[in-house]
Amino acid sequence: MVEINILRGRITSAEAIKILEQYDNEINIMGLGEIYYPYIFRRYWLKLSASLGRLSKLNKYVDCSIDLVYGRPSLAQGTPSFEPICIEEQYLLQSDLTREALDQIGHDFTFTYYLNRSKILRTPTIQLENEEAFYKKFYIVYCMDGDENQYQILLDAMDGNLALLQ
User: How confident is the model at residue 33 (pLDDT cuts 50, 70, 90)?
Assistant: First the structure.
């Protein structure tokens, strides 16, 4: 067992089944499992000017979350709240990203964010302020169709989004 931080899930396993039944009331659910997907939350300080001049108004924090499996960054909407849980390690997806890769992904994302929003051609200083690893819970729903072909559906425990697994 390992202790991890997860985003507080909103959807229980019973609610996950109800969501699927709303899409297809004849769905044949064979089982339901859980998997935890790794992310890292990073807060960067983007600094254009040290003085109190005009450019200092553009100094800001930029929060991003990075998917630790594929290395995809996204803009975080505020600081997430986490819940610590103990879980068996077999339910955790593993990350192969190195610290150097994370630093490059986060820096590039923050710099691109700046370029897309700023009309000033000036290179900012980008500094990592803090980071926190966390996991997001997903349900894997094992199903069977009318021809007895098995398939799996991935259901996000935060927002109920679905994806068919191949």
Answer: very high
